[in-house]
Structure formats: structure tokens, C-alpha cells
Write a structure and sequence with these properties.
Shape: globular
Number of strands: 11
Oligomer: single chain
Number of helices: 5
Distance between the termini: 67 Å
Order of helices and strands: HEEEEHEEEHEEHEEH
Radius of gyration: 24 Å
Structural class: alpha+beta
């Protein structure tokens, strides 16, 4: 019986190895082997290994994975003739695995940017106006925003906000940032969004007087419950002491 059980376990083990590592193949009429790309989701790899920009550093998508291999881009919500640029000034596609915040239809032509940020990552998609202006890459500033958000990781929570950015008519620099229609329910998150937009450095493609004078940024902020037991106990004590 022990020998039979050993053989069964060994067969199952080899089947698992076979299904994971052996490429799926089929044969054409001429007998040539044709390899089909595996649909298995991959673990994080180097950016160089992802020429289609399907890899988002340190930022899992909605399904908790880091990227999907060889995805086909979907329609840009900013318009079919508009290009999409990310937080690293790279031209990318809107992908099926992207957050819904990037895929939702855009009805306001002043909406140039969409941002999803959390303690785990800062992801930006510019959906309009890339021929006129882009946000300069600022990895250090992005990291500071992530660190600031980590202070609020006490509960699973998401919120959004929309800000209107006014630019100086001569220099093209950010001059004024105000909320437009949608204000976050938590005032501290509103402050982080406003501070984020204020720090942006913009590059105008047209020399002289900037063509773009204002634009809208749509923000999505995601918090996660990372509170330890002692953190929760302190929160309860503080609440009791106030009553």
C-alpha cells in the first residue's frame, strides 16, 4: 500500500511540473510544432523584459498581479486620436488589467490626467494633450506621496477627488490648485491630493506662450488595513479617553 501511495504522489507531482513548465504545443498540417503562449500570470520581472510597458513597478493591479504578458490595449477614454503617457514619460496603452479609474469614459475635455496612488505605488495616465504638455518624471516626489499615504493605512478604504490646475500664462508653471466638483471625504487625503498636484513640473512642447492654461486631474486614492494589534489597541484607548 505504501508503494502504491508513493507512485500516485509521484505521478501527481510530475503532472504538475509538466503542466507548469512544458510549453503548450500543437502541430500544423505540415507537422511543424507551433508553440502557444502560456496564459499563466508571471511574477514581477525587470522593466527591460516588458517592451510593451505592461509592467508596473511596485504596483499590483486589481487582481493582485503585477502584469499580464502580451495584452492588447483598449480604447483611450480621452479619444482615439490621443496618446497616453505614464508617470515615467513613457507612451503606453490602457490595458484590460488597468484600474477601472483609467478605463472609465471621460466626458470633460479638460481632463488631462488620471492618478491612482497608495502606499504601494503611484501610477499616472495622461489621456489628453500629450502633444502640448506632459508631466515631468519625479520618482522621488512620487515616493514621498506614497510614504505620506502609508500613515493612513489603518483601514481598507478608497476615495477620489478632482482638482482643477491653473497655470501661469507666461511661464506655464502650476499657479493654482483647487478642487473641482469632487472633494475627498477625508480632509487629510484632500490635502495630499492638492500637495501632489502643486509639486508637478510640466514640460510644454510649444516654445513661448504655453498653449495649455489649465487642466483637470482625476485622483483615486487607495488605503489598506495594515494596522497592528497594538495600533488598534491605541486607537481604542484614544477613543475611550475622549469620552
Amino acid at each position: 500500500m505504501k508503494t502504491l501511495k508513493y507512485l500516485k504522489n509521484n505521478i501527481l507531482y510530475n503532472l504538475v511540473l509538466f503542466s507548469v513548465f512544458l510549453p503548450i504545443g500543437c502541430f500544423t498540417a505540415g507537422g511543424e510544432s507551433v508553440k502557444e503562449e502560456s496564459k499563466i500570470l508571471l511574477e514581477p520581472a525587470s522593466v527591460e523584459a516588458q517592451p510593451n510597458n505592461n509592467y508596473y513597478p511596485n504596483y499590483p493591479n486589481q487582481q493582485g498581479n503585477y502584469y499580464y504578458p502580451q495584452q492588447t490595449g483598449i480604447a483611450n477614454p480621452g479619444g482615439e486620436n490621443e496618446k497616453v503617457v505614464d508617470e515615467n514619460e513613457q507612451y503606453v496603452n490602457i490595458l484590460p488589467s488597468d484600474y477601472d479609474h483609467f478605463k472609465n469614459p471621460s466626458t470633460d475635455k479638460r481632463e488631462f490626467f488620471r492618478v491612482v496612488m497608495s502606499s504601494e505605488g503611484y501610477v499616472l495616465r495622461q489621456i489628453r494633450g500629450t502633444d502640448d504638455v506632459i508631466r515631468k518624471k519625479d520618482s522621488g516626489g512620487d515616493q514621498l506621496i506614497m510614504e505620506e499615504l502609508s500613515k493612513f493605512d489603518k483601514v481598507n478604504y478608497s476615495d477620489d477627488g478632482i482638482v482643477m490646475v491653473k497655470l501661469n500664462g507666461e511661464t506655464g508653471k502650476v499657479e493654482n490648485v483647487n478642487f473641482y466638483h469632487r472633494v475627498p471625504r477625508i480632509s487629510e487625503l484632500a490635502t495630499i491630493m492638492r500637495n501632489d498636484a502643486t509639486r508637478w513640473v510640466l514640460e510644454h512642447k510649444q516654445k513661448g506662450v504655453p498653449k495649455v492654461r489649465d487642466f483637470i486631474i482625476s485622483y483615486k486614492v487607495i488605503l489598506k488595513n495594515r494596522a497592528s494589534r497594538s495600533d488598534i489597541q491605541n486607537i481604542i484607548r484614544n477613543k475611550k479617553s475622549k469620552h
